[in-house]
């Protein structure tokens, strides 16, 4: 067992989302539509920000990075989930399982820090507009993104430290459609109470702490705006409403999954599908639906693509 990473388990078996063929067919078309929409929408945002000089500002730089992370986030588990819907035996190798966990927490941790950076960007833009370009300089933007990626990778490696040395000697069945710590730890052939607590302390408390930090920061922005200009309150509310919506969509499933991660429930599977497939799509829609500059840039990109296809 020591030579095999303290494990005789070489693969894990997913129970999936449902045993009903009709439900699986519905889930395939439903998830496929939203997955493709997520890919196209977030790719369009990244290309629009990169190609349009009018969007070369800190806010859009951070938004493009959020879309880039959503592209990765929705592609970690969704393609395999779609493939497994048509498989009687849904399996993943031990290495593939660890890889999924690594990217889930690396991208999730990075996005968590990025959302905090976007809240800081809105604070500077709304509360210190005259100093906005000085504070949110290109150097500051790169520093924020570098910090987000470093913290995300540290968080992911710290999470993997809990499981890579665990003995897995069977059973090897995961009541899910993807690998993550709460389900995987339950299969370890050892006492897992301390490990379960560490998962809650690491991911759960970080998620809850970040969520309330963001909500408090938005409230602080609104209170500051109201003190200085009552007329600017409605504009600030309009600007922040998109951010608050994205924050709730992102942290809601995370808090449920990691604060109460070891309670068996069909609801956590629904939240997992929602988080993997629908949230990246909604993020793209929310940040562009009421933004005239972004919609104009996206129309230009689409027009250029159509023109290029016609010429070629």
Low-confidence stretches: 1-7
- N-to-C series of helices and strands: EHHHEHHHEHHHHH
What integer value in Å does the Rg equal?
21 Å
Query: Order of strands across the widest beta sheet?
Result: 2-1-3
- What fraction strand? under 5%
Structural class given helices, strands, pairing?
Answer: mainly alpha
Shape: globular
Average per-residue pLDDT, rounded, comes to 84
Number of helices: 11
Helix content: over 70%
Biggest beta-sheet profile: 3 strands, mixed
- Total E-strand runs: 3
Distance N to C terminus: 59 Å
List keywords for this structure.
globular
Write a concise synopsis of the structure shown.
This protein is mainly α. 73% of the residues lie in helices and 3% in strands. It has helices spanning 21-51, 58-74, 78-84, 94-127, 132-135, 138-160, 181-185, 193-228, 232-259, 266-289, 292-311, and strands at 11-14, 90-93, 173-174.
